[in-house]
């Protein structure tokens, strides 16, 4: 489900769970563990995906088979993954190698930098379209990145964006020509930082990320239990099942 490659001082963690790198409980736990180890063993980290598809987000098909306890446990694990990314002690860059909707872009909000491949790809937080609501920590991370009004314009209608549109509002930081160039550029971005005096770079980085980490400690009206309640509501269940039926017909 993950491919680990060291490019000198930069460790690449590539999502490789066919067909769409959807995040199920096992992948979320494994990615969290590998990131924690990379923070101790490498000087920078690149998280990439399969060519043409970084990640389709949460594995709705698998999660619809979970009971209430399973969904509660999964959402807690997913939030732990986000916090692990936010607290990475080394620069962590996302090479968005293709489509990155919903959970695919969500995890990147907590990294240092986002580079997306050019092409007919989509990204954005489309949770409302499938009957879900993002947690406050995700909303706050998005506002931190793009500003309050653009964040509202993305989240409320659940908009999906092209790479150019995502770049225009600051949801991503760069566009590269193709998926592999995206990975190469992410590695080069890390290497440029690593060429700087290490301690001043890391301390300055930590200073600017303190607010991001602090979001996890704030009072959160959207708790794990609230997510679980919404997940099992009739409206959300009907919407998710209808979405899966449409996908099966494609």
UniProtKB/TrEMBL annotation:
Cross-referenced InterPro entries: ClpP/crotonase-like_dom_sf, Enoyl-CoA_hydra/iso
Source organism, top-level taxon: Bacteria
GO terms for MF: catalytic activity
A GO BP entry: fatty acid beta-oxidation
Any Pfam family the entry gives: ECH_1
Family indicated by similarity: Belongs to the enoyl-CoA hydratase/isomerase family.
Name of the protein this chain belongs to: Enoyl-CoA hydratase/isomerase family protein
Provenance organism: Elongatibacter sediminis
Upper classification of the organism: Bacteria, Pseudomonadati, Pseudomonadota, Gammaproteobacteria, Chromatiales
């Amino acid at each position: 489900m993950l491919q680990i490659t060291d490019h000198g001082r930069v460790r690449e963690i590539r999502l490789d769970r066919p067909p769409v790198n959807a995040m199920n409980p096992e992948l979320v736990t494994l990615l969290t563990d590998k990131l924690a180890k990379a923070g101790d063993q490498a000087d920078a980290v690149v998280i990439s995906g399969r060519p043409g598809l970084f990640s389709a987000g949460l594995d709705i098909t698998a999660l619809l088979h979970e009971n209430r306890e399973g969904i509660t446990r999964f959402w807690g694990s997913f939030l732990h993954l986000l916090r692990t990314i936010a607290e990475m002690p080394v620069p962590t860059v996302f090479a968005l190698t293709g489509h990155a909707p919903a959970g695919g872009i969500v995890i990147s909000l907590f990294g240092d930098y986002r580079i997306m491949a050019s092409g007919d790809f989509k990204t954005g937080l489309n949770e409302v379209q499938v009957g879900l609501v993002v947690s406050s920590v995700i909303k706050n991370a998005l506002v931190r990145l793009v500003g309050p009004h653009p964040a509202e314009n993305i989240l409320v209608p659940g908009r999906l964006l092209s790479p150019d549109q995502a770049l225009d509002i600051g949801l991503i930081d760069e566009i590269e020509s193709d998926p592999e160039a995206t990975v190469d550029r992410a590695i080069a971005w890390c290497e440029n930082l690593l060429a700087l005096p290490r301690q001043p770079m890391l301390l300055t980085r930590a200073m600017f990320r303190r607010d991001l980490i602090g979001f996890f400690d704030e009072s959160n009206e959207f708790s794990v239990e609230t997510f679980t309640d919404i997940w099992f509501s009739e409206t959300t269940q009907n919407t998710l099942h209808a979405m899966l039926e449409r996908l099966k017909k494609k």
